[in-house]
Amino acid sequence: MTHDAALLAADAKARDDALDVTRSFIVQAPAGSGKTELLIQRYLRLLATVDSPEEVIAITFTRKAAAEMQHRVLQALLRAQRGEVPEAPHERITAEAAATVLERDGLHNWQLVANPRRMRIQTLDSLNASIARMQPLTGAAASGNTVGNEAEVKALYRAAAAATLDWLAEAGHLRDAVHEILFHVDNNTSLYVSYLSRMLETRDQWLPFVGSGQMENPSALRGTLEANLCKVVDAHLSQLRDLFPRELLPELLPLADYAAGNLVAAGKSGHPVATLHELSALPEASADALDAWRGVAALLLTAAGGWRKRVNVNDGFPPGDDGQKDALYDLIEAASQTPGLPGLLHGIRALPPASYPDEQWSVLLALFRLLPMAVAELQQLFSSNRLTDFIEIALAADEALGSAGSPGDVALLLDYQVRHLLVDEMQDTSRAQYRMLEALTGGWEPGDGRTLFCVGDPMQSIYRFRNAEVAQFLLAQRKGIGGLVLERLLLRRNFRSGEFLVHWFNTVFPQVLPAVDDPARGAVSYAEAVPALAEEGECRVYPLFGADPAFEAGEGCRVIADTLAGYPDDDMAVLVRGRTQLAALLPRLRAAGIDYQAVDIDRLTDLPEIIDLLALTRAIVHPCDRLAWLALLRAPWIGWDWSDLHALVVNDSDSTVWELLQDPTRLQSVSGDARAALTRVLPILESLRSVSRSASLRDRVERAWLMLGGPAMLAEAGSVENVYRYLDVLEKLEIAGTLHDVAELEAQLDLERVSNNGSARLQVMTMHRAKGLQFDHVLLYGLGRIPRSSDRAVLSWFDLPEEHGDEEKIISPVGRRADLENDPIHRFIELTEAEKDRHEVGRLLYVACTRARKSLHLLGHTGMSADGESWRAPDARSLLSLLWPAIENHFEQAFEPQPEAPAGTGADQWLQPQRRRLEPPWQLPEVPAVPGQGTSQDTDGDGRAVDYYWVGGEARIAGTIVHRWLQFAAQTGSGVAGLADERLAATTERWLRELGVAPGETMARIRNRVGEALQQVRDDTRGRWLLSGDGHAELALSGVVGGAVESGVLDRVRIDDDGTHWIVDYKTSTHEGGNLEGFLAAEADRYRDQLARYATLYRAYRAVDVRCALYFPLLQAFIEVDVES
After folding, report:
1. Strand ranges (DSSP E) for 499-636?
2. Which residues of the chain are modeled with pLDDT < 50?
3. 572-576/597-603 β-pairing
4. Contact 1017, 1023 (CB under 8 A)
């Protein structure tokens, strides 16, 4: 039997075994192995054995995966219901299982096809929520609060962190804890809040070992944590001692004593080798012998970890020795024949000490007291804002379940309800999720009729930034979960990629991934695959030399164009490690006319037009913000040079930028162009400093942007949409015309992604985003580029993967920046985490490469020497460096010496940012007339220009309140009577306070405006008709309009007595001056497209004819809008 045939036979047996529903398994399913089909087959087989479909739970990690699995199960049942018999063998297995389920369905009257919700295929977050709701107390909180979006919960994290600073004004240990941590971060409150808020994002990881914060027995806790340090040291030294060649000891011991004696005699007893004086045996594998082991490492290795090639008097080997140097060289040569020995020897230099220094322990103790209190602050904010996050739900579920050894009431209840668990993407479990699985399966035993089936691929574990740890999967393979042993299965067949691609994977990735699995290091070895598709697949390499992004983008564009042209019926994907690598490529694709679909590529704050708008907003909100005002002067609308900015502010750190702009002497020191540009915009800048009571912050920013010439700097139509997305975000966050926290705006904008969602054969996305997808052709672009560095947290830790107790942690706080590199415990954790990250980068590369079905294209660059005569190996942090052993020959063959390297192409060269500047003179274009209204300006009876006023901050807030009252009147059925409620004024004021309007003149004006609008509705025949009768209020609908997904909220749907369905949009605009008809006609034109979308959505919802209208309470005007023309 050939090698491939043996692997195929093992694969077939594994797939057969996986469908034995009496046994529990953990299945390693590499890319393209058909794991989803196998999971569905197992699920159907299980349904055919239970009394109720709810006894089987399938857990996935995304809503998309859960929906896909449920859809495929339902389709299998429908096909079986129709009696279809597929041809493919694996599809026949699914069909037979589905037919058996239908028989069981008929026997027990499940009606699964009609009631697919009975199939418990759900995400882990959904399961957590259902478990939390089963707990009487925590469930109330979990079910009553809404899960906030990322921006909302991050704002609450920051608020909770900032709230802990209030404890500085109190007496007691909490004040001392805050003081200790503040001192620890150099009294930088911004850094303090940032650190704590990031810790709150991962509180499910550390709360189990931090506890309540009361610290009843700090000494015992210290002893436990220091025992963990010893355990790490002992494990490493034990591995080293077992590997060390015993036959070398007769030579090693006298040489070590010789060198140590010389160093002690020379007064160098602090040298590591000096600890080996009178050494008579190999050091023991314990923390007490750590110094001696470091001495051995210093004797045999260089500081960089390589074998020594020479020694001198500084190492204990003075001139004129009796052959000891040569003997040492012979010893080193013999030792070098032992694989892995230098790595283990060098590794002991990074091992942590076996105990915490008192100062560091004091900081840790302060953290353990502070962090639970920060969680308490967060929970209060969750309660007051009626929000929660998935972590809070998971913690509530964890509390409800208890532990495997001490299950809670909910876990005992589920034990009777759930017979079988299936877990998809098992490699992405975090420690907290692993604990949940332990609790759910606590007490389960092989053969008791309950089974656990886990499927995943450790080679595709790429979500450490979401707290996923591949060690959990590796440990589950070895030891099971809790007390339940899992049989290990490994799939081999790859149904996705062509034969030659699979062989390429089998050749390259054993060199990229580690040789053996190691949970402690996060190391996963490569599992060889066997292709199912013969005579297909290719890999092409495109070597580039020099770091010019424009040239690289040109080559990438050429590869894409050639591939799309050569395969007109195929799709293609461009995958990158980070979004920043696409800055030059995407404009090049647009210029070449290549359509692409970009999914969540650019953050809104990465775009130049948004960077400028943010500076403008900061300048308006904070007139003394020097950086914002300097950025405003630097922005293209004004376009000052760096030298002009320096001349303006040099030697004056106290004055505001505006004050400096009023200083004639200062202005004389800047260039003439700068003064001319300032003269043009000075009136606009002056207006930024004035506070408007009627205009919202959004209006002020938009007006200033238009007056400064912002639209002239937009190169494409999509940029306009980006600007208004920014303004929409700003409008949601502003309170009473300002922002309480600009950082909250920046955080919200960071979450806004710019996507081109049009249909195209080419897709552009990150490698992480591509997981689970497949494409005919894949281009890995920018392989020579390196990512940004990550931020540190206030506490660093990792689990000891050999054990599963909550206390098995290695913990260190992040110290003052000046002390970071000198703290051995932190340094050990940092190096360990860095090694895990490096292994994950290799797995990320595997995920990216295995998305390809037909062809894989690799494009990356290496640096060049200054004379252009040679090239350098790629940066060790790049993906290209991982592939280097396999593709170096392609670079060797492609390189041609250049007489002179192009300027700025070295990897160490700074890239000069492109200068963006509005060319004067520029002025706003004439506003075109409204269609059908002529070109003359409307006038009132006295010939004065009409003021179309419908914006303004107070008007917007009043509109929000009026909408609430109209919704209340329609939903409760009270009609206009509900608008005469005696509590109207008090409720309105309460709502205004919630919107950030303080009691005073502004509140009184808005309240009066609301009252006036509601009185107009009560007095209006159309208003009374609108709020009475059948229909809907605030009806939210989603659907497909014009090929795109659209959503909308319909203010009012009024079903008339004759059955006509009216879609009515409320408008709280007012109008001053004459020509009211012109104003209403303009408003009808303005909202025609929006109402047309609403009509399309509603027709899809109810399949009836509709009519559309606008209603203006303040004007008592009801205007029908024709959306069919």
Report:
1. 530-533, 538-545, 572-576, 597-603
2. 138-142, 803-807, 900-913, 927-951
3. unpaired
4. yes
Whole-number pLDDT of residue 971: 77
Q: Residue 402: what pLDDT? A: 65
Eight-class DSSP state of 546? S
Report how far residue 512's alpha carbon sits from residue 510's, in angstroms, rounded to the nearest whole number.
6
Tokens of 933: 């209204």
Burial of 32 from C-beta contacts in 10 A (0-12 / 13-18 / 19+): buried
| Interatomic CA distance for residues 347 and 407, integer angstroms | 41
Q: For residues 581 and 599, what is the distance between their CA atoms, to the nearest angstrom?
A: 14
Query: Hey, is 1105 helix, strand or coil?
Result: coil
Q: Tell which residue, 298, 310, 312, has the closest CA to residue 342.
A: 298
Q: What angle in degrees, to the nearest 10, is found between the helix axes of 431-440 and 203-210?
A: 70
Q: Which helix (H) or strand (E) element contains residue 498?
A: strand 493-498
Distance CA 997, CA 1009 (A): 14
Q: How far is Cα 839 from Cα 822, in angstroms, rounded to an integer?
A: 25
> 87-104 b/e with 16+ CB inside 10 Å = b?
eeeebebbbebbbbbbeb
Which residue's entry shows tokens 């303006």? Answer: 648
d(CA 575, CA 572): 10
Give the CA radius of gyration of the chain.
34
Q: What is the pLDDT of residue 950?
A: 37
Give residues with Cβ within 8 angstroms of 952, minimum separation 6. 694, 695, 696, 699
Instruction: Say which DSSP state 61 is in.
Output: S
Residue 912 is predicted with a pLDDT of 44
The whole-angstrom separation of Cα 856 and Cα 572 is 10
Percentages helix, strand, coil for the chain (3-state, rounded to 5) are: 55, 15, 30
Please, what's the largest Cα pairwise distance for the chain?
117
Inter-CA distances, 923 with 674, 708, 929, Å: 18, 8, 18
pLDDT the model gives residue 789:
64
Q: Check residue 943 and give its pLDDT.
A: 37
69 contacts 56 by C-beta, under 8 angstroms: no
pLDDT score of 370? 87
Query: Do the strands 597-603 and 753-756 form a parallel or antiparallel pair, or are they unpaired?
Result: antiparallel
SS3 97: helix
pLDDT at 935: 38
SS (H, E, C) 401-432: HECCCCECHHHHHHHHHCCEEEECCHHHCEHH
| pLDDT, position 867 | 74
Q: How many CB atoms lie within 10 A of CB 269?
A: 12
Is the separation of the CB atoms in 413 and 134 below 8 Å?
Answer: yes
Burial class (CB in 10 A: 0-12, 13-18, 19+), 998: exposed
* Environment class of 889 (CB within 10 Å of its CB; exposed 0-12, middle 13-18, buried 19+): exposed
Tokens linked to 487? 């049989």
Are the C-beta atoms of 39 and 455 separated by less than 8 Å? yes
Q: Which helix (H) or strand (E) segment is 176 a member of?
A: helix 173-184
Q: Can you give 263-325 as a three-state secondary structure string?
A: HHHCCCCCCHHHHHCCCCCCCCCCHHHHHHHHHHHHHHECCCCCECCCCCHHHCCCCCCCCHH
Gap between the Cα atoms of 936 and 944, Å rounded:
12
pTM, whole model, 2 decimals? 0.72
CA neighbours within 13 Å on the CB side: how many for 294? 18
Pick the closest to residue 829 from 802, 792, 804 (CA basis): 792
Return the number of other C-beta atoms located less than 10 Å from residue 387's C-beta: 18
Q: What are phi and psi of 107, to 5 degrees?
A: -65, -40
Distances (CA, A) of 132 to 382, 400, 411, 428, 440: 16, 6, 11, 22, 13
> From CA 39, how far away is CA 37, in angstroms rounded?
5
Q: Which position has the token pair 């396999």?
A: 886
**How much is the pLDDT for 102?**
93
Query: Residue 1121, CB half-sphere, CA atoms under 13 Å: how many?
Result: 27
